[in-house]
Q: What sequence folds into this?
């Protein structure tokens, strides 16, 4: 071959190779000199990683400081998500070492949507942790992390107040950067209502890591300590709460115990109840279904949201409405009770079919004579009754702190016009309203508050569930007592009502005799609310001591019969327990109090 | 022994010097990979074992011996054995297909008595010899014959390797053949037209959605037709080429379906890099760039690379070893290594120019092409200029086959340069 031609070709090839090498060299120059700072920074950050350090959730305690919702430190076993793809053998080895079912484990991994570390075992036992630590070398990147887990040491105690924690939903992680998939968030109760107070703010741990995800050291500049959530002291007394729940166990009903002078709720119970621990541990869908389809609706807080016909305790309001307007006097007597009252072409019965004979207003309240109130209501219009009922706090939310309670129902003529049509209803509805039946609805919380106002200073108080909020910095925020602007009625009327309610319990003929407590005078009112779907609901509402009460109670047992027979003895036990505690004595076991 | 000494003394000193230096630096780089600083405090076990370095040391020894042996035997004997050796290497590839062990998603390795060999590497030497023989013995024929013949020779190797699947290695075969064809007298414009289907394919790869690329591709085909007109090729080859282009363009979506998911992902990541890919298929390239870029002008110092030390660099002792070099020795070191490779290529072409025997001259060009392609593609991948494909850097990447073949190539070069005056 011609040497000169070869030379030319060699030059062409060398030039091509040279140009390519130059291009590579230029790109190296650009990276190593021009963009050096950028890559240097990336290399530094490459070695650094930030892990979230979850903030311990605020503790919820009762008013004495007894912890009702606390954090226990729980070991979790996790694996980095980005390495999952090639981790089949590691996962299989992990499953066999820990004697887990590989299929279940795989399912859990597939179901997880945690972004950086996938939880393999949520609640690891010390034995499981030991196995992982011993086999560190054959289980690379399997990490044991210890983190707080919510625990309710008293189980179902105050469950309806506390609520529970559940896993965050996707929308919640998207709308609030505090949460990541797999996190827990408050559901129901204080846990939900005070979520922002309780959750605190997460910290960060800056670490130096290698590509394998092993932490090589800490980086102080990237570390931010977590700020724990606020500690909440509820207004509840856990001992009283326990007693109330014990009394309601096996029944369907609710009870609210409220401090008269502050509105503090000392006990709030709804039965049946549930154990919030079940939800925190990760509840199975079968169990969840079972709970949700429970006919007695155990998740439902009857104390705040259960709207019942108030029954006879409403006679307090009917009486007040008439007295306030001077339509009757305490000494007014109507036709004697014969057990029934004829209105139009219909007979309205008294609960005592034998009849109460001739009674004055006080006697009618004490013996809860329906016929007396059928006659008394003739002096009042529906709207006058409704107006007084509202002044007594019915028909609207109590504005209980942290919760949304039911407002119940106080029908007036406008309501009837709307419900039945203008002039399509008669004054006959009044007869049912007079004795707390008909369309009237009230919650146990409302009834307790009304009784507290009657027995106390005549004003309604805002119910409180949380006594003190203590931030992680130690700032204490004590609940402010909020009183209504207007009294429920005049002092004259209230004094009369107090006398009558004292008689209900104290007098021989009173319906509430079974509520008597040794050493303390109790005032109260029984109620036997007719229930269209079954047996009557038994009510008893009370306050004590009668003269200057400390505490008011409203208690209802669904479909249980007579208030005086069923509810009054339960309230007696509640009040007995309360006064034992007040005297600094332990609560005696049930049945030993007398 | 005397033959060996005599051969070395007569062969190109520049090439020998560059070769020895490259092997020394390559060994140092592999050693650096086995040193894991985070392992010193017992926290992390080193992910590249010390035995990797010891193995590489052994292969350097084997490589030197192979190069010397290859240099000592007068190369006219290779001329006679050219086709046989190529056929043998093809047979080995076939054997791998039947018996091979699956490693990293492909059947490439043949385990013989503890030594693992990639016959596809050996086929590179076989192809250089076979093509040199073919082109030397048919030097007087027209370009169409030479091109057809050359591609007929490399086709079995290309197809066998491409379906292993190892696209990166398969592309070496045409990359060796085209400069050799040029050397044998085929015009550059003809070769461009020849390579045009590849460009056509590249355009189609620009996106995974056919609608996105159909217009750029149509424009490309039109441009090509204009080029063909200016080339004034015969009608038949012109039509053939245009047809080949159109067919390639149309076939790409079908070939795409046949690709392994990881290959698809790598190609897509290369064309559409995004942050999301950093943790997946773009991860290797990203980390490699960070390593090189953070090396700066002078590097972090031998053994002191943090990217490598903390094991962020994947495949850092094999395909991505250049990023370790770039991190620890900086721009200066990287340019030095590129320079040494350039010296090898420059000397090989120099030898090719002066050697009397056409066979020897073509072998030298083949050697130059081999190094040019391997080095350029490997380094371009580490700096992110090309999509990731498994191609070793000669004398650096850990692995016996690559070391052996690179040394054999050097041996051929020494052989030819020592006997430049042979007729």
A:
């Amino acid at each position: 071959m011609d040497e000169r031609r070869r030379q030319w070709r060699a030059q062409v090839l060398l030039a091509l190779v040279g140009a390519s090498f130059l291009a590579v060299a230029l790109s190296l120059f650009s990276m190593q000199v021009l963009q050096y700072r950028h890559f240097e920074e990336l290399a530094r950050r490459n070695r650094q990683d930030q892990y979230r350090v979850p903030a311990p959730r605020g503790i919820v305690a009762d008013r004495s400081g007894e912890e009702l919702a606390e954090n226990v430190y729980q070991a979790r076993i996790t694996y980095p998500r980005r390495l999952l793809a090639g981790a089949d053998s590691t996962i299989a080895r992990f499953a066999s070492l820990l004697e887990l079912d590989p299929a279940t484990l795989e399912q859990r991994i597939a179901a997880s949507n945690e972004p950086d570390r996938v939880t393999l075992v949520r609640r690891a036992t010390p034995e499981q942790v030991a196995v992982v630590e011993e086999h560190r070398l054959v289980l690379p990147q399997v990490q044991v992390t210890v983190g707080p887990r919510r625990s309710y040491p008293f189980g179902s105690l105050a469950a309806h107040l506390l609520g529970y924690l559940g896993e965050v939903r996707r929308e919640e992680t998207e709308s609030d950067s505090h949460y990541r998939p797999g996190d827990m968030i408050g559901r129901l109760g204080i846990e939900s209502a005070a979520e922002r107070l309780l959750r605190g703010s997460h910290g960060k741990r800056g670490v130096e890591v290698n590509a394998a995800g092993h932490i090589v050291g800490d980086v102080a500049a990237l570390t931010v300590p977590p700020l724990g959530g606020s500690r909440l002291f509820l207004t509840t007394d856990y001992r009283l709460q326990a007693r109330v729940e014990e009394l309601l166990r096996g029944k369907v009903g609710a009870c609210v115990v409220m401090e008269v002078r502050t509105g503090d709720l000392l006990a709030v119970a709804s039965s049946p109840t549930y154990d919030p621990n079940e939800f925190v541990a990760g509840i199975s869908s079968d169990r969840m279904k079972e709970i949700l389809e429970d006919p007695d609706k155990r998740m439902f807080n009857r104390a705040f949201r259960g709207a019942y016909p108030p029954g006879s305790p409403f006679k307090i309001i009917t009486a007040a409405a008439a007295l306030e307007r001077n339509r009757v006097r305490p000494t007014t007597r109507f036709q004697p009770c014969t057990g029934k009252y004829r209105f139009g072409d219909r007979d309205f019965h008294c609960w005592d079919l034998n009849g109460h004979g001739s009674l004055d207003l006080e006697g009618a309240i004490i013996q809860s004579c329906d016929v007396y109130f059928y006659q008394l209501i003739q002096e009042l219009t529906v709207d006058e009754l409704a107006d007084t009922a509202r002044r007594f706090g019915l028909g609207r939310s109590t504005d209980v702190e942290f919760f949304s309670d039911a407002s119940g129902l106080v029908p007036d003529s406008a309501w009837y016009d709307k419900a039945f049509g203008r002039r399509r209803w008669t004054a006959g509805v009044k007869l049912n309203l007079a004795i707390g039946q008909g369309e009237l609805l009230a919650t146990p919380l409302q009834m307790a508050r009304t009784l507290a106002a009657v027995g106390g200073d005549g004003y309604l108080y805002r119910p409180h569930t949380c006594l003190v909020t203590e931030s992680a910095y130690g700032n204490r925020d004590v609940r402010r007592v909020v009183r209504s602007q207007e009294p429920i009625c005049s002092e004259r009327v209230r004094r009369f009502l107090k006398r009558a309610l004292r008689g209900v319990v104290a007098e021989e003929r009173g319906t509430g005799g079974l509520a008597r407590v040794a050493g303390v005078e109790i005032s109260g009112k029984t109620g036997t609310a007719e229930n269209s779907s079954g047996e009557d609901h038994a009510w008893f509402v009370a306050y004590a001591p009668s003269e200057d009460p400390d505490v008011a109670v409203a208690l209802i047992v669904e479909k249980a019969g007579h208030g005086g027979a069923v509810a009054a003895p339960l309230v007696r036990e509640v009040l007995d327990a309360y006064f034992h505690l007040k005297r600094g004595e332990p609560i005696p076991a049930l049945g030993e109090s007398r | 022994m005397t033959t060996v000494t005599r051969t070395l003394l007569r062969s190109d000193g520049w090439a020998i010097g560059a070769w020895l230096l490259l092997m020394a630096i390559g060994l140092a780089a592999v050693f650096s990979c086995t040193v894991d600083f985070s392992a010193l405090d017992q926290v992390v076990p080193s992910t590249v074992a010390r035995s990797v370095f010891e193995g590489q040391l052994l292969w350097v020894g084997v490589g030197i011996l192979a190069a010397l042996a290859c240099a000592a035997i007068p190369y006219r004997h290779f001329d006679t054995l050219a086709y046989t050796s190529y056929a043998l290497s093809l047979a080995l590839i076939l054997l791998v297909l039947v018996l091979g062990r699956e490693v990293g998603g492909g059947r490439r390795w043949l385990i013989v008595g503890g030594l693992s060999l990639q016959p596809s590497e050996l086929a590179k030497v076989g192809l250089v010899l076979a093509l040199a023989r073919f082109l030397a013995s048919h030097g007087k024929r027209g370009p169409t014959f030479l091109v057809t013949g050359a591609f007929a020779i490399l086709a079995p190797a290309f197809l066998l390797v491409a379906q292993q699947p190892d696209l990166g290695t398969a592309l070496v075969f045409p990359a060796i053949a085209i400069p050799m064809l040029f050397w044998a007298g085929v015009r550059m414009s003809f070769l461009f037209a020849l390579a045009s289907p590849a460009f056509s394919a590249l355009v189609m790869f620009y996106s995974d959605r056919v609608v996105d690329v159909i217009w750029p591709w149509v424009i490309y085909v039109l441009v090509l037709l204009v080029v063909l007109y200016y080339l004034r090729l015969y009608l038949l080859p012109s039509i053939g080429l245009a047809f080949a282009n159109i067919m390639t363009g149309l076939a790409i979506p079908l070939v795409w379906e046949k690709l392994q998911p990881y290959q698809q992902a790598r190609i897509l990541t290369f064309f559409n890099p995004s942050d999301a890919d950093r943790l997946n298929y773009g991860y290797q390239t990203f980390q490699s760039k960070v390593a090189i870029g953070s090396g700066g002008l002078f590097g972090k110092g031998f053994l002191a690379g943090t990217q490598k030390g903390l094991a962020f660099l994947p495949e850092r002792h094999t395909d991505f070893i250049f990023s370790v070099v770039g991190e620890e020795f900086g721009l200066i070191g990287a340019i030095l290594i590129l320079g040494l490779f350039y010296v090898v290529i420059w000397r090989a072409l120099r030898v090719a120019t002066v050697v009397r025997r056409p066979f020897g001259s073509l072998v030298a060009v083949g050697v130059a092409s081999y190094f040019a392609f391997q080095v350029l593609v490997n380094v371009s991948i580490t700096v992110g200029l090309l999509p990731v494909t498994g191609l070793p850097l000669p004398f650096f990447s850990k692995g016996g086959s690559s070391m052996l073949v690179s040394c054999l190539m050097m041996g051929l070069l020494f052989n030819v340069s020592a006997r430049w005056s042979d007729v």
Observations:
- Chain B has one domain: 2-418.
- The mean pLDDT of chain B is 80.
